Amino acid sequence: MLTLDPLKRRGWRAALALLLAASVACAAAAAQESAAEKGFGSDWQSWTADNSVSDVASLQRGARDFLNYCNACHSLKYIRYSRIGEDLKIPANLLQQFLVPPDKKATDYISTPMPEADAVNWFGKQPPDLSLIADERGTDYLYQYLTTFYVDPSRPTGTNNLALATTAMPDVVSQLEGLKRAVFRKVEVNGTTEEEFDHFETVVPGSMTREQFDGFARDIVNFLDYVSEPAQLHRRSLGVWVVLFLLVFTWLAWLLKKEYWKDVH
Question: Is pTM, for the whole model, over 0.90?
Fold first, then answer.
């Protein structure tokens, strides 16, 4: 009969324990993934853009997507097409072919083709210029706004938004993200019953996966962050040299002071 000595038995027990722990962890991960597929977004207020204006490829995609999906209503009145082409390393022929409208020149500022009267008639007010929106609201807010649209039949546009309730803007990217429903739960607050957002549920899938749409939203936010201060990359790189100069100048000034005062002491 086959027998195992005590040391080998302990080894087998440890291996079985590790295997059991791994199985439990995999099951928990699968359960979490399944729950995430059924409902998501309960932590939407903690979502961050995590964008970087040094990512030129992201800025190029963001410029393309903004002009395709946002520029019909929103302008960027403080920046020219040519400045975007120069900063984002877009060749002049591609800029003119894909980003500049046929009736515009590269040296024009980015305006919206929507007449103000039509905007007021359709939305109740003219959509705001977004040149400085990233500075005004912050990139995290913009990311949360783009990703928290949900179906709301009570609204004129058929959609609403968690970051900006009763927004007049329709969900113009629903074809990409898909349609999702907001599920609310009832909570007691100071003796009264109120509704509190719980999670999203996908109603109709879009042409993009959730990860792809997440990248799409981050690229647009990154582009708007760049537009709010196009010179910020140059300013930051210049700031490093300024600080280094001040450090060296301080060291030289200290040496000079030491030389002047050595006879006094």
Answer: no
